Amino acid sequence: MMDNDLFEKGLQQRKATLGADYVEKNLAAADDFSRPFQEAMTAWCWGFGWGDDTIDAKTRSMMNLSMIGALGKMHEWEIHCKGALNNGVTKEEIQAIIHVIGIYCGVPQSLECFRVARKVLDERGLL
Fold first, then answer.
1. What is the DSSP letter of 64?
2. What's the average model confidence in pLDDT over 112-126?
3. How much is the average pLDDT of 83-111?
4. What average pLDDT does the segment 88-93 reach?
5. HSE of 102, CA atoms in CB hemisphere, 13 A
6. What percent of the chain has pLDDT over 90?
7. Whose CA is closest to 87, among 13, 28, 26?
8. How many Cβ atoms are within 10 Å of 11's Cβ, its own excluded?
9. What are the structural domains, with CATH classification, of the chain?
10. 74-86 and 91-105 helices cross at what angle (nearest 10)?
């Protein structure tokens, strides 16, 4: 059973970070197979995790870029790179995060992050 308040809180935060269009497309594409996961992830990750005001959204975005970069999940890294920009993370901060990814996760992984960041930054007119 899903906590509706946590879902609504998560939905608001998810839209603020990733953009309402992106989130609404994901939820609309959910079917009977994937909808329970989408709802649970929105409540748990975005409502419970991101809904805690102890760490601000910008810092959470920076943490996410580091962790997702370390995992090498580049599709998610691209989504969260866009979200990080929405949450006030600067191009220079993204660059510094990628440097740390290179130190702790290896040069090939940092090169992948730079490749994706360049695409996102170029789309935003920041390069």
1. H
2. 98
3. 98
4. 98
5. 13
6. 95
7. 13
8. 19
9. 4-49 (no CATH), 57-123 (1.20.1290.10)
10. 150
pTM for the predicted model, two decimal places: 0.90
Token pair for 88? 């006030």
As a whole number, the mean pLDDT across the chain is 96
Structure tokens, 5: 């308040």
Q: Are 78 and 108 in contact (CB under 8 A)?
A: no
Alpha carbon separation from 93 to 32, 84, 127 (Å, rounded): 40, 10, 14
Name the pLDDT band for 2 (thresholds 50, 70, 90): low
Q: Which amino acid is it at 67? A: M
Q: What is the pLDDT of residue 1?
A: 52
Q: Six-digit token pair at 80?
A: 């969260």
Residue 2: partners with Cβ closer than 8 Å, 6 or more residues away: 39, 40, 43
Nearest CA to 65 out of 124, 105, 17, 113 is that of 113
Contact 42, 64 (CB under 8 A): no
